Amino acid sequence: MTRKKQILKTAAQLFKERGYSAVTMRDLAAAMDMKAASLYNHISGKQEILSVLILDIAHEFTGGMSMVKDEDNAAFAKAESLINLHINIALSHTDALAVMNTDWMHLEGRPYEEYVKLRKQYERDFKAILEHGIQQGEFKSMSVETILFSMLSTLRSIYLWIPRKSPSEIKSLKLELPDLLLEGLKC
Amino acid sequence: MTRKKQILKTAAQLFKERGYSAVTMRDLAAAMDMKAASLYNHISGKQEILSVLILDIAHEFTGGMSMVKDEDNAAFAKAESLINLHINIALSHTDALAVMNTDWMHLEGRPYEEYVKLRKQYERDFKAILEHGIQQGEFKSMSVETILFSMLSTLRSIYLWIPRKSPSEIKSLKLELPDLLLEGLKC
DNA sequence: GTCTATAGTTGGATAGAC
DNA sequence: GTCTATCCAACTATAGAC
Fold first, then answer.
1. Residues 17-36 of B with CB under 7 A from strand C
2. Low-confidence ranges of chain B (pLDDT < 70)
């Protein structure tokens, strides 16, 4: 792993615990057993760390979404794929995902605009899949806004739940979450 | 409204938007059309603002929970009451609730310990109600942890959803959320 | 109760030696 | 690539005049 990747990984851990604004470059350097000045040989500044962490994850989601959109499946199966997408990213990139969810508003300039754009597009795509499911009679006829809100709230919180749980509890989650989220939607 | 309450209200708005660490006493003073030094005639410091905002809301939740525990109702009705508790607090104290959910880790000393204690107790009580519902055969037999996680994730996110919505969409939420969250739990 | 002035600390970032 | 030393801006909070 390159030095830059080590810095990004360590920063993700610290930002997750204390939040972007509360972590100093000196804190980050200390956690890496170096001095703050040395960090700048690998990254241009604190903002670069934040934007790399967040935009990488954001692109994981939009990449996953475009795969799901291309599936030749009904809305129900697509919703299942999206649940798995969220679980898999939460498992493989827990810290960076936490940073994205809690510190995106500290992005500045272009990266901020980019993130907001990606997030809006993701929500639009998610909503379209749910709407299609309702039109086709796969899902109950209720407010799409309410369904979208409830599903996304749960999916976006998985990262909070995962680090506290055993592998067997995570297996339960993978098994039961599609049921729990989609059962209430069936006609 | 006393000057202190005005300060707390304004602080809640700013903390919600930018996070506790990113808001300075100068920012807060400017938003109140005064100088930073003048704030200290009303509050002892930045930490006091944070702890008052957060612990007030935390006590709203524990107070609500103790009412629900005393209800002479089945688990299903109690769960419904808890959903309403979350919706009502999210409606009446949107900003302070946002601060509690995102900035509690910036509490220091006693208030931090107090908040963590209240939150743990709330989750224990919530879990006990769900477990009781499963034992009595009101709810499906699935992992309580998964149900608790999914319900609390949605309920704790309501404050994010509310400011973007019209009164009629909020009515939909009030009407449909109990259904959506509890339907998947029925046997 | 609000102000100006400022103390005392800490932040991100750079310069230049090794 | 890491260090020491340092710049300078910004932070919380206090002192004391009005």
1. 29, 33-36
2. none
